[in-house]
Amino acid sequence: MNRSPEKSINLFHCLNELGDQSLVSEVQEYLRSGELSSARLSSTQWSAIVFIFLTSEQLDKFDLSKYISREQNQNHMTPDKLLLKLFLIFKCVINFNRLDTRVKSVLFCRLKGCSVTAEGCAALSSALRSNSSQLRKLNLSENNVGDAGVKLISDALKDPHCKLEKLRLRYCGITDEGCASLSSALRSNSSQLRELNLSVNNAKDAGVKLISDALKDPHCKLEILRLYKCGVTAEGCAALSSALRSNSSQLRELDLSRNNVGDAGVKMVSDGLKDPHCKLEKLSLCAYSRNVQKLKHTFISTETIIYIRVCQNVIYIKRTKYKNFLIICWLSCHNRSI
Fold first, then answer.
1. Which class is domain 5-258+269-285?
2. Which phi and psi angles does 242 have, rounded to 5°?
3. Integer Cα distance of 178 and 174 in angstroms
4. What is the pLDDT of residues 228-263, one digit of tens each?
5. Residue 90 to residue 84: CA distance in whole angstroms
6. What pTM was computed for the model?
């Protein structure tokens, strides 16, 4: 018989209060085995598993990879369906035990490389919009969520109940379409997002322009943006430079490593950094030696701190009494001279 999550939780709660630990002992075996996706569990057993999660003293972090079988077949629940099942019961358990001090909130959800798709993102989106959600960090890196999945997460970011502050989407098959969804979310008054990692995605200049437009919005709270290996050229740097000069931008850290920005891109970013409105404190950037020379002269003239990293060496150039600025330039291996 399939009971509703609420009834199953009620039954488990009664057994727990009566001191019956048989169900807990039974489901702990599944947790230790890491085979939740292949387990055939009743609704009450699922409720017991989630209750154990939420009363664990180390639960501030939930890592799905610990509970997914590496040998997927037709008898295994997909990671998307496992997410849907878990988050539905998470919500019910938290609501049912709102006054139970043993029940803790999940603050960090790690789903890196768990084969999550847009279907799983729908479950995440619903969980993020729940008024009981306390999730602050979400790592979805190395999943095929695509633009469709990013749109679902972005819709959740606009919800006033969503408290997410850090979102990692490295290598998730995202294009400028997904960046458009994220840009819209960042401009929302409700979004609490402070850190966004879009590294190793096909965002390119079109996507970077959309994110840059969001950085200019007074509602945008983003402070850290990682665009490592995103196909950014000088055109994207022009958009970022414009954002850096905006009085509204809160950006403190920018990673443009492994992009073909060229001399023109370096100059545009440098121009943005000279602006008094620019709040950037750390810039990671790939550059050939001639680019570094341009940066070196730029920052000496603007009295900022620069660290130029060449392989394992760090060269200190100048200190300012007005602001601390860190720039990391990775030089090509075959061109190490400064």
1. alpha beta
2. -60, -40
3. 6
4. 999 999 999 999 999 999 999 999 999 998 898 888
5. 10
6. 0.80
